[in-house]
Amino acid sequence: MYGTFKALASLLAVAVGVQAQESSVTRSFYGMAYSPDGALLPQCGADQASVTRDMGKLAQLTPRIRLYGADCNQTELVLEGIKQAGNVDLSVWLGIFIDGNDTVYERQLNAVTTAIQKYGTEHIAGITVGNEFLLLSYGDGGSATDPKGVAARTTLLNYIQKTNQTLKAMKLDKPIPLGTADAGSAVTKELCAGADYVMANVHPWFGHVPVEQSAGWTWQFFQDFDVNVCAQAPNKPVMYIAETGWPTASDNASITTNGPSKASVQGLQTFMDSFVCQANKNNTNYFFFELKDEEWKKKYGGVEPYWGLYDFNMKYKDGLKVPNCPVTSPTGRAVGPASSSPGGRNAQGGAKKSAAPSSANPVASTFVLALIATGLFAIL
């Protein structure tokens, strides 16, 4: 019996350690990139329970999230998830994915506007039209200023203008900023002039930078190729880093190292420790990449699936600790739930469910059940 108790005590120590590690997270990220699991055509396997869970966890880490697209009902899933999690304090930059096909754009624009009509504008901070559309249009060896790049920019800006006209016709209770996200090297003054904000992907891993130098490299690249470029545009758009982070693993051992540094949990920790608090201090707007690993990206191989704080199964990665430098919410609210009913047009009252870490009670309950099952509860 003593051996059984000792084994259970060891299990509790491990469980409590994992719980303490996850519950030690602070709201230190300015923003975070997010895609619901399964929000991909044609399967569209995203489910509300998982998205609601993710909204609760995200609200503990950041007051801001950005989405990439609107297919598979993901806009409504996210806004409903925020409500079900207790109307948690999350400002969302919605996404409209484009590939140059008008049908794809119209489908996603319709999904976004339908969601706005249903949930109102309370949690919406912007709509991002396109994600690396320019980069994918001009391809390897091309540039944003070659004929393909210029043609893609024209298409993109036309979509932004059409989105703007659609929103104006809706007569919303507040203006919604419109922008785009692309590679940090794809930003031009002409692009900046057509958007309220510009998001730039800046990944030190792909810059072949030692992880110890990655934070400084990220900030400098963003300043030189994005902030300074858009400062020349007459409208002076708001600037964001759309993605930045560090991979923790690779499917291919030959590309676990990209230059001088490895894909590892320690690498992610080093990057977070050197980037997050400093970026918060110098008022850099960024969306950290990302909440969890994305299993569907295994088809690309290498490091692509492994950028999350959580693994595929939403287990917090062992050894990670979020830096302690809490950010200020743009709404001035606490994490949640809200003390009053959600605002915005057509908003509906959400469940008053706490956004506290969901792992706290299950750990204790599981241990008590184990004690009962082994007859040790009476001894303790």
From TrEMBL:
GO terms for molecular function: glucan endo-1,3-beta-D-glucosidase activity. It is an enzyme of class 3 (hydrolase). GO terms for biological process: cell wall organization; polysaccharide catabolic process. It is found in: Cell membrane; Secreted, Cell wall. Its EC number is 3.2.1.39. It catalyses: Hydrolysis of (1->3)-beta-D-glucosidic linkages in (1->3)-beta-D-glucans. InterPro entries: Beta-glucan_modifiers, GH, Glyco_hydro_17. Residues 1-20 form the signal peptide. Its main location: membrane. Residues 331-359 are annotated as: Disordered. Pfam families: Glyco_hydro_17. It is a single-pass type II membrane protein. One of its GO terms (cellular component) is extracellular region. Residues 348-359 have a biased composition (Low complexity). It comes from the Eukaryota. Keywords: Carbohydrate metabolism, Cell membrane, Cell wall, Cell wall biogenesis/degradation, Glycoprotein, Hydrolase, Membrane, Polysaccharide degradation, Secreted, Signal. Glucanases play a role in cell expansion during growth, in cell-cell fusion during mating, and in spore release during sporulation. This enzyme may be involved in beta-glucan degradation. Active on laminarin and lichenan. Belongs to the glycosyl hydrolase 17 family. This is glucan endo-1,3-beta-D-glucosidase.
